[in-house]
Amino acid sequence: MNNFSYIKANDLPTAFGHVRLGDAAKYIAGGTNLIDLMKYNLTKASSLVDINHLVGNHDIEELPDGGLRLGAFVRNAATAYHPLVEERYPLLSRAILAGASAQIRNMATNGGNLLQRTRCYYFYDANTPCNKREPGSGCSAILGYNRIMAILGTSESCIAVFPSDMCVALAALDAVVNISGEDGERSLAFADFHRLPGDTPELDNNLKPGEIITSIDIPQKGFARNYSYLKLRDRNSYAFALVSVATGLELENGLIKDARIALGGVAHKPWRVKEAEDFLKEKEPSAENFAQAAEIILFGAKVFEYNSFKVELAKRAIVRNCMMALNPESQLPGAQPSA
Amino acid sequence: MLNYQSTYSPVLTKDFDTRPVTININGKPTTLQLMPWVSLLDALREYADLTGTKKGCDHGQCGACTVICDGDRILSCLTLAVMKEGSEITTIEGVAENGQLHPLQKAFIEYDAFQCGYCTPGQICSAIGMLKEGKAKTRADVKELMSGNLCRCGANTNIIDAIMEVKNQDSHE
Amino acid sequence: MSTRPAIGQPISRLEGHMKVTGAAKYAGEYNVPGLLYGYVINSTITKGKIISFNTEAAKALPGVIEIFTHENRPSLAWFDLSYADMDAPPGSPFRPLYNAEVSSNGQPIGLVVAETFELARYAATLMEIQYEEESFRVDLKENLAEAHTPSIGMATMLKPPPPKPKGDFEEAFANSYAQVSAEYFHGTEHHNPMELFATTTIYEGDGKLTIYDKTQGTINSQLYVGNIFGLHFKDVRVISPYVGGAFGSGLRPQYQLFLSVMAALELKRPVRVTLDRSQMFTFGHRPQTVQYTRFGTDEYGKIIAMNHKAIGETSKNEDYTENVVNWANMLYASKNTLMQYELVDLDVFSPLDMRAPGGSTGSHAIESTMDELSYKLKIDPMQLRLINYSEKDDSLGRPYSSKELRQCYLQGAERFGWAERNPEPRSMRRGNKLIGYGMATGIWEANHLPARAEAIIDSEGKLQVSSAVTDIGTGMMTIMAQIAADELGLPVEDVAISYGDSKMPFAPIQGGSFTTSTIGSAIKAAGKALRKKLFKKAKDMDSSIFSSMDIEDVAFRDGKISVKDSPALSVSFKEIVAANKGKAIKTINFSVPKFFKLKKYSRAAHSAVFVEVEVDEQLGVINVTRAVTAVAAGRIINPKTARSQILGGMVWSVSKALREETITDYRLGKYMNQNLGEYHIPVHADIHDMDVIFVEEKDENVNELGTKGVGEIGLVGMPPAIANAVYHATGKRINQFPIHFDSLL
Q1: Any domain includes A253
Q2: Which residues in B lie closer than 8 A to residue A128 (C-beta atoms)?
Q3: In degrees rounded to 5, what are phi and psi of residue C694?
Q4: Which terminus of chain B has a smaller tally of CB atoms within 10 A, N or C?
């Protein structure tokens, strides 16, 4: 870790001004991933601009259309436990609480959660080639120990997985990311925020240099009656997902009116397949139908030496989680499989 | 896979100026001369000589460095001391009041909730935060919400027993 | 009122207050004025040579004091032997910064010393290092053809080679009624105590050093430093009052000790070197091991042929061995046996004893094989073990000093509810979960070694006891106080224990479950001598009431010597010391095991473990929902701390069977998960109901205390019991640890 100048920015223009000055300047909010990466010398910064004290975006507010605006600087724990989130978007609440640990959730911000970097072993080891860390150096994971790596949307240059749980729920909920930059404000649909690796795996998302996430909007439909988040991992808590699933179902007269299924732990971004959700519409919420949807979602999966289990695991996890969504009370702490 | 040479080039640091950072530690305003790259954990251990807060991984993966910051349990290894200017920090050294052990400290001794003792300060600070949050209803909830604190000696069941004892006392009051 | 015996009381840890208030200081927590910080530079190649270092940029930083490499280190002891330690395997010990050779990935190759930790860490990143790489091998399974017989050395004393073959295994196996042959594997594991390895060396001038070291043996570190740096042992004082876990990793001096001492001597300033978590994966580890078993029985389930072979990993420079194949025939009699143990040299750092070394490895194969046999024979797994119950150690034809394993089976099964098990695999379920019951046996040797202890009655009439022994979290202080209190007839509150200091009387390294017996015996010896001395002083007092008595006529109780038959006639220790002109009365005594007597017996602690697992039928997720360990380990000094030792072993069992693994990329020759985020040890949410039973076991042969030690036995039987329960739940036998849940899909 190198030393850096530390600057507290109280408003956006000040923040933009500092990060513009040098491309080695970085914003810091919760810092839970950035400081980790800096200590490993994987991220370097000549200055850190502390944006925790920017005016605004520290609250959760109701939107006129019935949705909710999550300030980017609200901590993950405060978001998960916010009464409006618990009541209207329990899927988001459950997903957040399945991630990291209580201490980290008390520190990490909503904006920062979207910007976490992969936990690929090779990305984290500066002495191995990694296209995400050093474009053009090669991918060590493709022929390496790839148990934790992606099976969907991979490329020749990267098979890393995006590690967030919160984002899996945000993807399922059709959230919108609000961004500020020197050129003004813009919004990105959640599905357009994160990128697939393609041949530019160094880019995790579509945030431009110098831009700041200011808030995340979730539309009104929260699937608060039938939802579930399931996370499968190598221990019951405080570990990243091998496969996770967020499901929201809207039922009417015993049939599925609307369905959302997003996967974590399988791709470079939360994975959603519209065809699968469309398939479920007007169908009975049965294990058979969910299994068919799972087949559609996993279509085209590409496996590597040590992660072929993820395909079957993901399919079964989808079915289980959709069944759990029919009975959300069956969910257990830590998003473990229901009894 | 031989012959890979990392192209890592560190940012050459030129600025080694320290600045005074005042943090309220265990009720005492404490001013430390620090460079920005000092983590809150190292500030406590190396600059304030409060070594009760432990370093087990320095990367947010073990919970040994848990302290209470403005009422919330956080990991002191993943935050910079300069970012905590003006904050109220409680470390294990500040948990007992007027020489009276905190109920969790007593319960940890009684239930043999530690062996080597190295994760203990983090476990206790984390449990204080957890009880204050008030989100745990069952033993399973407590285990999940305490899972950010690893114990390699395997004192897990005794730790949870000790916390449940205090939690039940609290709920009876 | 007479003092209740302290031994057997569930006394809370005496150092508890220090540990719950943060007052307990560990090796890397002594902040002395002028302290310098060392940060280690590790090799990024697995094998080869260092061509050059460019230290210019790093050295140019203000506050960087020195950078040590093999090129500029001070000249040191030349002989390999000087680097040897109490736990060194046969071979040539690793010598830090010795030359340009790199023989394992992560090998320490330099040390940056700077005024702050942050600066030292940063300067290390500015080093430019050129290497010449050579090809290497780190994959055990790919190199089994290279296996060889281990060499013999000092360390082999506690780790004898496999017992000699008996009968004709091949023929007996071929003719047996029921047969099982199987292969088992576990990869590398790292100890990962929560405390990072650290040494703070204080340069006291005149070649004198005070060293705060994370170690399991203060005297081991002291001798190591003295030998290598050519210092008089008296000038090297190693202190480790608190040790944040070790599990074997501190049995040998680690490289931060060497580097800290070297820098302090060179710079004549205090230097601390603390490893970071990834560096905790750059020295000893539990070696990856492949095992093969072939067991054959007669139609009644009696074993008639037994073959257990293990091939373990070692480094190129030392033959690290474990007792893997010595246990099966200790547990189960068999007329025909063949036990084999071999090593493969790999380009890795030398392996190092890790909690229940060898035993937990061997039991995985032995007890899984027994389980498989039980299904073949359609005999209940516990019944099969009772059929093969051996009253004596069949491998050496010796009786056991004591063996209450039968009671472990019976009491454990009763507490667990083993009788409710449906023998059919996949026959028990609860909602989405398959339920499995599994059991296994555990065994661990009860050793003890020579040690000294000092005992003093001070002017307050209180007892002070000291030993150089460390406390890695086992509760040494508390049990030392209990043993000492009973020796002198004092309440525990009147006993003060000092330990963890090489200036104190000799203690060997703390490990192998032998420390209670070792230090306990030394305290008993010191206590006995002190009683004699006190009595003599009491007799010598003016008009002593004891003048015509022998020591047999008096009792030591409540801080007094009193006449056995008339307790009112007494003299307090305080009065005796006062009569001794206020001078404390002290003894230092050496306790040596009675080797001749001990040779007549095999000595071991035993356990029976019963486990319930829940396996999600569709998703494979495994939880150990209940476990009971019934232990026969001789006399239990402190049921509270002993229970914690067993519980700790049980948590380690969950970890070994289901969680922890060091992931190796064999192409790169390195470990890929050198952190606690990806090296998964259990979290609280992984640990469910656990119960411990201590079975009554009297042992008058093992040592004077009758203790066998409880540090390892909790980890020996339970991992295979978990694997057996997984089989019972799912019908799938996974012989590789850890069992990944996805292997059950």
Answers
A1: yes
A2: 1, 4
A3: -100, 115
A4: C
Domain annotation covers residue B13: no
Is there a contact between B11 and A104 if contact means CB atoms under 8 Å apart? no
Any chain A CB within 8 A of the CB of C121?
Answer: yes
Our CA-based measurement puts residue B86 at a distance from the nearest CA of chain C, in whole angstroms, of 23
Question: Which SS3 state, helix, strand or coil, does residue C697 take?
Answer: coil
Share of chain C above pLDDT 70, in %: 99
CA-closest candidate to residue C531, choices C523, C541, C521, C542: C523
List C195, C322, C367, C712, catalytic entry: C712
The residues, any chain, with a CB within 8 Å of residue A224's CB and separated by 6 or more, are A87, A88, A89, A90, A91
| Residue whose C-alpha is closest to residue C201's, from C274, C158, C129, C261 | C261
- Which chain A residues are Cβ-neighbours of B2 within 8 angstroms? none
Closest B-chain CA to C46: B2
The closest of C287, C264, C111, C115 to C191, measured between CA atoms, is C287
If asked whether residues B46 and B86 sit together in one domain, one would say: yes
Q: Which of A234, A243, A336 to substitute to test the interface with C, most C CBs within 10 Å? A: A234
**CA C482, C484, C487, C491 torsion-angle sign:** negative
Interface contacts (A, C; CB < 8 Å): 94
CATH of the domain at C47: 3.90.1170.50
Strand C428-430 with C495-498, pairing: unpaired
End-to-end Cα spacing for chain A: 45
In the predicted model, what is the mean pLDDT of residues C335-346? Answer: 98
Choose among C116, C196, C690: nearest Cβ to B56: C196
Residue C568, both tokens = 């009112």
Q: Does C54 touch chain B (CB under 8 A)?
A: no
In a domain, B129, yes or no: yes
Nearest to C439 by CA among C647, C686, C718: C718
Q: Are A204 and A160 in contact (CB under 8 A)?
A: no
C712 is catalytic: yes
Q: What is the pLDDT of residues C610-631, one digit of tens each?
A: 999 999 999 999 999 999 999 9
| CB contact (8 A) between residue A5 and residue B15 | yes
The minimal CB distance from C621 to the residues A128, A232, A240 is found for: A232
Q: Structurally, how many domains does chain A consist of?
A: 2
Contact of C525 with C591, CB cutoff 8 Å: yes
* Cβ-Cβ contacts under 8 Å, B152 against chain C: 192-194, 245, 247, 681
User: Looking at the complex, does the CB of residue A46 fall below 8 Å from at least one CB of chain C?
Assistant: no
Torsion angle, alpha carbons of C593, C594, C600, C605, to 10: -30
**Judged by CB atoms within 8 Å, which residues 686-745 of C form the interface with B?**
686-687, 689-690
Contact call for B154 and C652, based on CB within 8 A: yes
Query: By the 8 A CB rule, do C279 and C109 touch?
Result: no
Separation CA C395–CA A258 (nearest Å) = 69
The count of structural domains within chain B is 2
Give the closest-approach CA distance of B128 to chain C in angstroms. Answer: 13
- Tokens at residue A278, please? 């469309």
Q: What is the pLDDT of residue B1?
A: 45
Q: Which residue of B has its CA nearest to C274?
A: B55
Query: What DSSP designation does C659 have?
Result: I
CB pairs A-B closer than 8 Å: 123
Q: What is the pLDDT of residues A247-264, one digit of tens each?
A: 999 999 999 999 999 999
CATH number at residue B62: 3.10.20.30
Chain C interface includes A337 (CB < 8 A) = yes
CATH number at residue A254: 3.30.390.50
- pLDDT one-digit tens code per residue, C173-221: 999 999 999 999 999 999 999 999 999 999 999 889 999 999 999 999 9
